[in-house]
């Protein structure tokens, strides 16, 4: 299966610790997104990469969050000094560039469920 | 700010009954996408609508995009247990080429 893979599937951490998640997109996809989803809500956009360039970041995203995609392939999302409010499912998605006037369809990974105690 | 509202939040149906979810945007959308998320799973793309008044069908699923491109609906005919999950609509954020804004989803529950 060459879908989007995320690691780890679950992460439990204590408040104040740093955590890092990894995402491996579909190999031919040049666009990579990070989303966050809490129970009963739709995914919330965090950040977007085209190849290795981080082109967009949510204005709501705390400075404690940082993401990288160093060689335009896999990506990491780091949360520093975690807070209980960071508990959520962190979803990675990848896509190919779509046609004019459309947003290309997103292929999501299974996510990393973060619990901050 | 820009909002996408989905109703209802939940819908309980008997297997074989129909299901409909409605999506309303505070702004005109260039396109709208629908995703399905099974319990414990991740969102899976269903369809994208681009044209005003567009209607697309996928077997028992019918998707509509409003004339004003501010609302959309998904109708499932004769629900089956495999339809269980949460259905989300998502549209482009204004002035962004990459962000999607998502509704909160409608959870389809089949009554035992």
Uncertain regions of chain B: pLDDT < 50 for 5+ in a row? none
Order of helices and strands of chain A: EEEEEEEEEEE
C-alpha termini separation of chain A: 34 Å
Estimate the mean pLDDT confidence of chain A: 92
Report on this model:
The complex is a heterodimer of chains A (117) and B (112). Chain A is globular and about 40 Å long. In chain A, a hairpin with a 2-residue loop joins β5 and β6 (53-57). In chain A, strands 2, 4, 5, 6, 9, 10 and 11 form a seven-stranded mixed beta sheet that branches. A four-stranded antiparallel beta sheet of chain A has the order 1-3-8-7, with no helix packed on it. The model of chain A has no long low-confidence stretch (mean pLDDT 92). With 117 residues, chain A is an all-beta fold. Chain A has no helices and eleven strands. In chain B, 0% of the residues lie in helices and 54% in strands. In chain B, the strands form two sheets. In chain B, strands 2, 4, 5, 9, 10 and 11 form a six-stranded mixed beta sheet that branches. In chain B, strands 1-3-8-7-6 form a five-stranded antiparallel beta sheet, with no helix packed on it. The radius of gyration of chain B is 14 Å and the shape is globular. The chains are: A mainly beta (117), B mainly beta (112). The A-B interface holds A 31, 33, 40-45, 48, 55-56, 58, 91, 101-103, 105-111 and B 4, 6, 9, 30-31, 33, 35, 41-45, 48, 50, 88, 90, 92-93, 96-105.
């Amino acid at each position: 299966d060459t879908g989007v893979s995320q690691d780890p599937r679950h992460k439990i951490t204590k408040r104040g610790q740093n955590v890092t998640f990894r995402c491996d997109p579909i190999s031919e996809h040049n666009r990579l997104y990070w989303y966050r989803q809490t129970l009963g809500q739709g995914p919330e956009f965090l950040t977007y990469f085209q190849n290795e360039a981080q082109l967009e970041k949510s204005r709501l995203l705390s400075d404690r969050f940082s993401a990288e995609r160093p060689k335009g392939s896999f990506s990491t999302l780091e949360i520093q000094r975690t807070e209980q409010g960071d508990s959520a499912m962190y979803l990675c998605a990848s896509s190919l560039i779509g046609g004019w006037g459309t947003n290309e369809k997103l292929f999501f990974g299974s996510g990393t469920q973060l619990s901050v105690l | 700010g820009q909002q996408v509202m989905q109703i209802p939040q939940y819908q309980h149906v008997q297997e074989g009954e129909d299901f409909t979810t409605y999506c309303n945007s505070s702004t005109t959308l260039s396109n709208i996408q629908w995703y399905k998320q099974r319990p414990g799973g991740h969102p899976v793309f269903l369809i994208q609508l681009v044209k005003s008044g567009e209607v697309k069908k996928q077997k028992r699923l019918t998707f509509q995009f409003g004339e004003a491109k501010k609302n959309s609906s998904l109708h499932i005919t004769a629900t089956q247990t495999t339809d269980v999950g949460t259905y989300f609509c998502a549209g482009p954020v204004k002035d962004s080429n990459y962000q999607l804004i998502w509704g909160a989803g409608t959870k389809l529950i089949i009554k035992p």
